[in-house]
Design goal:
Elements (H helix, E strand, L loop, with lengths): L1 H36 L12 E5 L6 E7 L14 H9 L3 E6 L13 E2 H11 L5 E11 L1 H10 L7 E5 L18 E3 L2 E2 L10 H5 L3 H8 L3 H7 L10 E6 L7 H14 L6 E6 L5 H4 L2 H10 L4
Parallel strand pairs: 2-3, 2-5, 4-7, 5-6, 6-9, 9-10
Antiparallel strand pairs: 1-3, 7-8
Length: about 300
């Protein structure tokens, strides 16, 4: 009698457990569907850019427009880059430090950042009487590198590009849903490589390199999201660290040069590979000075 009773209880418990597991599975599935289909509203600060101009003493200074990466804020206005700003000023270059998200008055997240607004801001400031608006170089690292390639490939008034630890494609916005583009152009999202479900695990563990590598496995998406660097109206200089811990910058940078050569790019282009990680290009800044002095010289 006891054995029959235990069997009945066991069967009923199994049914309860199965129902609980089914409910949990349905909740998790619904949650994942929500996460990967939810589209956040555009920020109320959409199209707002923070820009700080640092001028030298000479007239007709070529302009170096400098962007930070995925941490946000206005990196090139910060004290830790002051020595590099000052050195560019001493060499005759004006520096425009641009914050495009998580900066004063700008959108909080790197989500559908307006390329048009950034370009307009730069060109308005470039009318300053001490600036030579025929010599404008864009410089950015990490997501800032991705940004400058997207800008220069769409606006011909930019005359040179320096991209450090960059990508060759556009990646998703840095939001919890990651299902919008990082960039916005003429009221449309720039095509990007989507983040598949399998990227959730490495992303939660902080393994951003693996997450980006997984995204790049989708060859068709990569082809669609590849930045059309052959449209850039001037020389292109790429620097990467071969031990980049954030994403495969060296292989992606090689893809940029391959695309330029395939399209018979008429301007100078070079990719220098350094020993070191994601921030290594900033420690080898003499390479940037050499590039500017050769390809965007001060009169």
């Amino acid at each position: 009698m006891a054995t029959i009773l235990y069997t009945i209880i066991y069967i009923r418990m199994n049914k309860v457990i199965k129902r609980i597991l089914l409910i949990i599975t349905l909740i998790l599935t619904a949650g994942l569907i929500y996460i990967f289909t939810y589209v956040p509203s555009l920020s109320e600060q959409h199209g707002v850019v923070e820009a700080k101009l640092y001028l030298g003493n000479s007239d007709k200074q070529p302009l170096v427009v400098a962007f930070g990466g995925g941490d946000g804020g206005n990196d090139w206005a910060r004290d830790y880059l002051k020595a590099k700003r000052d050195s560019l000023n001493k060499k005759g270059y004006a520096v425009l430090a641009v914050g495009y998200f998580n900066s004063n008055g700008t959108p909080e997240s790197l989500d559908r950042i307006s390329l048009d607004a950034i370009s307009d801001t730069i060109m308005n400031i470039a009318q300053h009487p001490k600036i030579d608006d025929t010599k404008i170089a864009l410089m950015g690292g990490s997501k800032g590198g991705e940004l400058v390639l997207n800008l220069a490939s769409r606006f011909s008034h930019f005359n040179a590009v320096i991209a450090m630890s960059t990508s060759h494609v556009s990646f998703p916005a840095i939001t919890w849903s990651a299902n919008t583009s990082s960039w916005f152009y003429k009221n449309h999202e720039v095509i990007y490589v989507p983040a598949p479900l399998k990227t959730i695990s490495p992303a939660l563990e902080g393994d951003i390199f693996t997450a980006h590598s997984m995204m790049l496995e989708d060859e068709e998406a990569v082809q669609n999201a590849e930045i059309k660097v052959e449209n850039i109206n001037g020389p292109v200089f790429i620097v990467s660290g071969k031990n980049d811990e954030m994403w495969p910058a060296t292989s992606m940078s090689n893809s940029i040069i391959e695309r330029l050569k395939k399209n018979n790019f008429k301007f100078y282009n070079e990719h220098i590979i350094l020993d070191g990680g994601h921030v290594e290009p900033l420690t080898q800044f003499n390479l940037v000075y050499d590039f500017l002095e050769k390809h965007l010289p001060v009169n």
